[in-house]
Structure formats: C-alpha cells, structure tokens
UniProtKB/TrEMBL annotation:
InterPro entries: Alkaline_phosphatase_core_sf, OpgB/LTA_synthase_biosynth, Sulfatase_N
Name of the protein described by the UniProt record: Phosphoglycerol transferase MdoB-like AlkP superfamily enzyme
Membrane association type: Multi-pass membrane protein
Pfam family of the protein (one): Sulfatase
Organism annotation: Mesorhizobium shonense
C-alpha cells in the first residue's frame, strides 16, 4: 500500500453505502428520526435567536413561543423544511445551516437597527434602496467610529469562520445518497410551496387562519410582534402588487363626479419655487429646551400652517411623492416606497401639468441622482431636467454635506436665467441625520436643556442646520420681493428629524421614534407636523391653513398662484373642504374632527373612496379618468428605459 504523503489533503468522504437513505454512519439507530429531530431543534434555536435579536427582549421572545395563539412553532417547522430542502440540494446533512443562519441572523440585526432608528420593521421593499443605506454609511461611521470598526471586524471574522467551516464540513460529512436527497425534496418542496400559496394577505386562507398567522397589514409593528419577524416579512412580499380597490371598473370611474374646473393659468405666469427642507422642524418644541437665538425666526414669522408628514425620521421620498402628485401613501401597502416600486411609466404630477402650460419644470438636489431613484422618477413626473450632484457645479459644504446656502444660490441662478416661467422643486441635503455632536466647528446658537452632554451637542448640531435652512428661506423671500415676475415660494419640512435619544431624554417621546399608530390625534399632530410656508411676492404669506397632508400641497400652491386644474384644484379642492389630513391611520376634518383607523371600517366616506379610485386608475389601472382629471397626460405613454 502506498504511503500517504504527509500534509496531503484528505479526500472528501463519499456516501456510505451501508446507510442508503440518509448518509449517517452505520450502527447508529433510527437515523431518519435522529436527523429530523436534530433539524427541528436547530430550526427552533435559529428562530429563537432571530426573534431575540429583532425584539431585543429575551423574556418577550420566550413569551412569544409560549403563547398558543402566536405562530412561533409554525415558523420553526417552516425553517426546518427550508433546512431539509437545502440539505438535499447541497448534498450533505445540516450544511444548509451555514447559508440560512448567517443570512437570517444578519436580516434580524438589520431589522432591529431599522426599528430602533426609524421605528419601522424591515420590509422586503427595503432591499430596493440598499444602495441608499450604503451611501449614508460615511455619516454613520462618523457618528460611531468604534462601533463601525467592531462591526467591520465582526463581518470579516464571521466570513472567514464561515469559509473555514464550509470547507471542513465538506471534507468530513458524508455525501447523501440520491435516494436520501430525493426523499428530502419530496417532503420539503410540496410543503414549502403550500406555505407560499397561503401567504398572500389579500386573500383569505382557512389554513393560515388555523395556524394563527393573522396578517395585520394596517399596523406593521403589531404585525411583526404577533407573527414574528420571518412570517411578517414574508407577508409583506406581495406588497409589490397593488390590488384594485373593490368595484374598480370603467363604469365606476365614469360615475365619479367631474369638477367644473378647467386647466387655466394667468396671463402673467408666476414662477413657482418649492423647497422641501430635509428634516426641518421647530426644535424649541422639545420640553425643557431653550435655544438662543431663535433658530427659525423667518419660518416663525411667515408660517402658513403645518405639513402632516406620513413618515417620522426618514423615508423622504414618500412625502415627496405626495407633494408632487397629489396622491396619497394611505392607499398603498404599508412600508412601500412608490419611487422604488410603482413609478415606472409617466405619472401625472405638478411638473407634468405646468410643463404643458409652458413652464420649465426643473428639480434640484445636491445629492446623487440615483438616491431614491429620483433620476428615473423625475423623468416620469415630467420634469425637463434634474440637476444633482453629478451635474451641479461643486457646492460649498457646511459640515459634511452640501450647504443650504449653496442650494439657494442655485435656485436663484436657475430662476433668473430662465426666460420661461419656471417650476423649481428643490430638496435640501445639509441637515440630513445623523446629527453627530460637534458637526459644525463654528456654532452660532446655544442649547440649554437638562439632558446629557451628547444629547445636547447633538441637538445643537441639528439646530444649526435648521437655522441655516431658515436663513435660506429668508434669502429667497428677499430675492423674490425684488422681482417683477410674480413668484410663489413654498417651504416645508419632510418629517421630524431622527434625533433618537434626544427625544427620550427631553421626554418628548418614550422611544427613539414615534409609534406608527398614535394613541390620540393630538399625539399624531405633535409627532408628524412640520412647518409649512406658502408665500407670494404679490400677496405675502398664506395664513391659517392648519395641518395639511402633503397630497394637498399642489392645491394650495396652485390656488395661491391663481392657477386652476381639474384634479389639483378641482377634485383636491372639493376634498379639502371635507378633510385636511388623509393619512393611513387618521382622517382629520377642517374643524378638527378625527377619524382614526378609518381604513378598517366597513363603510368608507365616498369622497375618500373616489380619491383612492382615481389614484389607482392613474397609477395602475386603465386611466379612464385621464381625459377629465389629467388632460395633459393623454398623449401616448412611453416607459422610461433606466
């Protein structure tokens, strides 16, 4: 027998013919039972670890699995089937764990972080903007450098360990027989296919109901808490498809009353400048906080009302979607991002309409053009062009990001250089979070509050950015006052800032973020209202608007400009007489009467139902209402090619 050379690689063990069904070593009793029980135990430990990471509460996780009306054990069975099926594909027992465990535990960690910072659980749609998250990494690293270093080291060490373990397992564990692999696939594939078939929350499933998997799509936080991370995540996969509202048909759309309003513009068309200021809010609303001097004196003097943001601490694109289209996120799946998922063909917007009336429609954002898919979306919205980091001249920075002052310079330059009337939509960047302490080397304000040094310095960084945004608005006002051309300026914050611990330490919130479903309408207003200014160089500021949803912004802007439109001033104008806030969880009338959880009621106000039908018709349907509500869109549609 030839000697085996020292150091030579050991050959990978082949399947042992003594045990043709499982590949386990001969002599061990009940191999199939042993494999099944060990896989089930592995799945149970993995699912428990996932829930513990996501919830951040060991005893809460234990309670989840002990409750008879929670689908924790169903999740374990599903994971066991996934492990069995992957074992068959990979050809060795339990090797699937090396794929499933790192992937699901990483998702659980990301889900916990998202919930901690933004208040929302992790949705399948979040992977559509993973590039945005990576673009924000420099800011996150700057705020917590040691955490970033440890995380990077852990990732490298984990990948190295995984690679070593994979190779070791392939050398030491016998290959499964063809019969054993077929048996595993015959068990796992049909059962997993069945589970997939019952996960569409839009249809009733008797089996899903018996398994206590209850889709709670109107309250995603409760959905994840009740069903567990894995099942709730799976339930949200179908959100990429938006179902037609009940009764949607050409006949139903024809029955919607047409407003007696035609599209018209004044002889002297006013320039319209809209500034959506990143995370702009009044930080003096925090309890026990004093900021000197006043960081937002211009906004305080000219304030027209409040923008009721459908988001908190992030998801800027969803506010932008409403403000430009006059449509509402309330009629879309919770957690969805229209810019990423649904805007794929020309979609009516203020830009579409105003361009049809001879305006030059331009968008400005000092960030990258792919962020939130803006480049493609703005093209579908009808903007003539979009100036972003790639096409703007080098912009002066204030702190780590392009300054509001530099963006204001660009707005003024663009408007003054245009012979046509302009519609300018600008999205600022400077005051984007996180608000690391000592962000600015030359602060001009002072914060006094009974909170930690870190929280106070973080709040100072935010206040400095807010003051710069306020100064930018004042410059626009001063510029517009000197112009001969009528000029409308709208300015608003997209959502409250992600101040995290500052909210908790000041007592403004119990947690770092506001809950999705507020206990009272008053709490919802406190946590979602941002300042709104609509101002004209002919008539001054619009007054007494109160809280308004972003979807009503086109109505107020066009009305101030003396412009009419069948949908933006006609339909939305009539709806504004009934509601000033249309949110997923709340309707608010002009008199302040609140209707919480309206979407769960059996009977919905016909006006709201018409709103939903028109939106579906124009975004996903046959566009039956286009000739009457959006006549500027009836030209042949061509999808963008990005």
């Amino acid at each position: 027998m030839a000697r085996i050379r020292k150091g030579a690689a050991k050959p990978a063990p082949q399947f042992l013919e003594d045990d043709p069904s499982t590949g386990y070593l001969p002599g061990r009793p009940w191999p199939t039972l042993r494999y099944g029980l060990s896989t089930l135990l592995t799945a149970a430990l993995l699912v428990f670890a996932i829930e513990w990471i996501v919830r951040g509460d060991f005893f809460g996780t234990v309670d989840f699995f002990l409750q008879p009306f929670k689908p924790g054990w169903t999740t374990i069975i599903i994971f066991a089937l996934v492990l069995i099926g992957l074992d068959a594909i990979l050809g060795r027992s339990h090797q699937s764990l090396m794929i499933v465990a790192p992937l699901t535990l990483a998702l659980a960690f990301v889900g916990h972080q998202k919930s901690h910072y933004l208040g929302d659980p992790l949705y399948p749609a979040d992977f559509l903007y993973a590039r945005q998250i990576m673009a924000l990494m420099p800011l996150l690293v700057r705020e917590r450098p040691w955490t970033a270093v440890l995380l990077a080291a852990a990732i490298v060490a984990g990948l190295a360990l995984l690679f070593y373990g994979w190779r070791l397992w392939r050398r030491r564990v016998p290959i499964l027989s063809r019969k054993g692999r077929l048996a595993r696939l015959s068990l796992a594939v049909p059962l997993l296919a069945f589970f997939v078939s019952i996960m569409d929350y839009a249809t009733f499933s008797w089996t899903r109901d018996r398994l206590q998997i209850i889709p709670i799509m109107w309250d995603q936080k409760e959905n994840y808490a009740s069903n567990g991370f894995a099942l709730a995540f799976a339930l949200n996969v179908p959100m990429a498809h938006v179902s037609a509202p009940p009764g949607y048909s050409e006949k139903t759309m024809d029955a919607i009353a047409r407003p007696e309003v035609a599209a018209s513009v004044p002889d002297q068309k006013p320039d319209i400048v809209v500034v959506m200021s990143e995370s702009f809010w009044d930080p003096t609303e925090l309890p026990g906080v004093s900021i000197k001097p006043d960081p937002i004196p211009t906004v305080r003097a000219l304030r027209s009302g409040s923008m009721f943001s459908p988001e908190f601490g992030g998801m800027t694109a969803n506010i932008e979607f409403e403000a430009l289209t006059g449509f509402s996120n309330a009629f879309l799946p919770a957690g969805s991002i229209p810019y990423q998922q649904y805007v794929r063909t020309p979609t009516p917007s203020l830009a579409t309409f105003l361009k049809s009336e001879g305006y030059r429609a331009r968008a400005i954002h000092p960030g990258t053009n792919w962020f939130w898919n803006r480049g493609a979306v703005y093209a579908d919205f009808g903007f003539n062009d979009f100036r972003s980091e790639e096409t703007l001249p080098p912009m002066e920075k204030r702190g780590p990001l392009a300054s509001d002052a530099a963006m204001t310079d660009e707005i003024i330059r663009e408007a003054d250089a245009s012979e046509q009337p302009v519609f300018l939509f600008a999205v600022s960047l400077q005051n984007h979070g996180p608000y690391e302490p000592y962000r600015y080397y030359n602060p001009t304000h002072k914060v006094e509050a009974p909170i930690s040094t870190w929280a106070r310095e973080s709040l100072l960084s935010y206040a400095e950015g807010s003051a710069d945004a306020d100064r930018g608005l004042q410059r626009l006002i001063d510029w517009a006052k000197k112009r001969e051309r009528p000029t409308i300026i709208a300015f608003f914050g997209d959502h409250l800032p992600p101040l995290g611990p500052v909210y908790v330490e000041t007592g403004f919130l119990k947690d770092n973020v506001a809950p999705r479903r507020e206990p009272t309408p008053e709490a919802a207003l406190d946590h979602h209202d941002t300042p709104l200014i609509i101002w004209s160089n002919r008539s001054g500021p619009v007054e007494n608007l109160g809280p308004v949803s972003p979807a009503f912004l086109p109505y107020h802007i066009l009305t101030t400009a003396g412009i009419t439109h069948p949908y933006y001033t006609g339909f939305l104008g009539a709806l504004r007489e009934r509601y000033r806030v249309v949110d997923r969880n709340l309707l608010l009338s002009p008199s302040g009467e609140a209707t919480p959880d309206w979407a769960r009621q059996k009977k919905i106000d016909p006006a709201i139902n018409d709103f939903r039908l028109i939106q579906y018709d124009m975004m996903f349907g046959k566009r039956h209402t286009a000739p009457d509500f959006f006549p500027e869109t009836i030209a042949p549609l061509v999808a963008h090619t990005s």
